[in-house]
Amino acid sequence: MIGDLRLWLSLAVVGSAFAHIRAEYRGPRWQVYLFKPLTTALILLMALASPPTPGAFYRGAILAGLLLSLAGDIFLMLPRDRFVAGLVSFLAAHLCYIAAFSAGIALGLSPWTTLPLLVVALTLLWLLWPHLESMRLPVLLYVAVILCMAWRALVRWQMADGGEAFGAAAGALLFVASDATLALNRFRRRFRSAQLVILSTYTIAQWLIALSA
């Protein structure tokens, strides 16, 4: 019964995400306002419908992260620029994910998890830094937090058994890819396929993280 509900919710996520991406390119704008938060809300419902296998704290932290992500989605789609408010919402969401991925897991400073993420961080900041101006500190903090989130997810996958840990790690890496594309599109150079890349990787990332709860 629970599996059937999660399947139907997953299909609804796919349909809502497709409608959102289509509206970003072809309009009308009201469909963006409808389907962008609806997609994340459906992912949140899917997480609520999942059996609480990893434990109460893990589940609660993931649900809090999804709820904060929903707030971030709403801030980033408003007609007036609420980029900082959206950034803060997603920053808090990543802190929730860090708490979840760190629960019961050792520090884990193996080179294969830390060095590639450091390379990604330094490359991204090198590309963005001349264009950030007053946003340098917020973006620097956000990059540090999201890469810490990905690092904790990778360490959890390395140390924990089960497909849930693998899915969460894959979701965390896709989240990094989505936010990196968003930052490059906003601060360095806009490109037409950006929304497709940002939204598809973001939706899959949140879906995978929700499944782990």
Oligomer: single chain
Strand % is under 5%
Mean pLDDT: 89
Described by strand count, sense and barrel closure, the largest sheet is: none
Q: What order do the helices and strands follow?
A: HHHHHHHH
**Structural class label:** mainly alpha
Number of distinct beta strands:
0
The 3D shape can be described as globular
* Regions with little confidence, pLDDT below 50 for 5+ residues: none
Radius of gyration from CA coordinates:
17 Å
Number of domains in the coordinates?
A: 1
N-to-C CA distance: 17 Å
Question: If you had to describe this structure to a student in words, what would you say it looks like?
Answer:
The protein has 213 residues and is mainly α. It has one domain (56-211). Helix content is 84%, strand content 0%. The protein contains 8 helices and no strands. Helix 2 runs parallel beside helix 8 (194-211) and helix 5 packs antiparallel against helix 6 (136-159). The model has no long low-confidence stretch (mean pLDDT 89).
Short descriptors:
8 helices; mainly alpha; single chain; globular; 213 residues
Brief summary:
The protein is mostly helical and 213 residues long.
Fold blueprint:
Elements: H1 2-26, H2 29-49, H3 56-77, H4 83-102, H5 111-132, H6 136-159, H7 163-188, H8 194-211
Helix pairs in contact: 1-2, 1-8, 2-3, 2-8, 3-4, 4-6, 5-6, 5-7, 6-7, 7-8
